[in-house]
Amino acid sequence: MILLSIICCIFISCKTTQPTGWRSVIHKSPLEKIVTYYHAAFDSSGFGVVTGFAGQIYYTTDAAASWKLASSRSFCLFALEINDAYVWACGDKGNVRVSKNQAKSFDIVKDFGRSDPHHCRFLSFVSVKTGWIASPYSLALTQDGGRNWTALILPEDCARIAAIDLFSEQEGMLLDEKGTLYNTSDQGLTWRKLASTLKNYKLDLNIYKSSALAMRFKDAEQGMIVAKLLQPFSCAVLFTQNGGITWTQKNISTDHDYRKSSIYLSRDMRTITLLDAENQTVSVFESR
Of 89, 159, 284, 286, which is the most exposed, with the fewest CB atoms less than 10 Å away? Predict the structure, then answer.
């Protein structure tokens, strides 16, 4: 069963989003009628979604005080994206689904990707129409809310994709499993490799069923990565204020072990969601 722990943290919400400390831990009752879940996502309003085996989706609008089963049919789902009332999900067999009513029901949109292990794992929508979708091996753009996908050519020498973020209608970032960071100013038509220091951090960049790392950028300069660090293990938040060239690190202090967790970071970079796939435990870290 999913044990939900909401852990609230204090962040500075000005030019920088670097945290100053953590506060209270709230434990919630287990979620009933559950199956194996692969990914979870919360935003700063207390709205959250969990997806998993056989396409089951549950959602909450009251910070996990109660859960409801969404109306949706699909194969297993491994990725989520929340943008206001819209929610996108994707996963096995190329299935992509979108909700326009805060996860109450999901519609079928055009497929992307293939079957596990080549399935969709990454979503990033800057608006209800414009977004990126990716598997570890391919990236595509939509400008009509997922009705059509346009395949994009990956950067030269790019390894498997570890994270994506389209942070404006034209600009975005891509991180590969080697720790190489790329940016684009034309939706992904052309790319520039950044001289980033990310490779100095022992990030867990392995490719799992769901994304084990989350990346968001506020603009071309300010960004955040939430990742699991190896040797020694920790769950860390990395910040940049110079376009990914250099980073500062703050660890998340928690009693839980998130070695096998998926990670989601809300679009406003204020809410972090971790789902421990082994113990089926969700934790939400929320900023102020």
Answer: 159
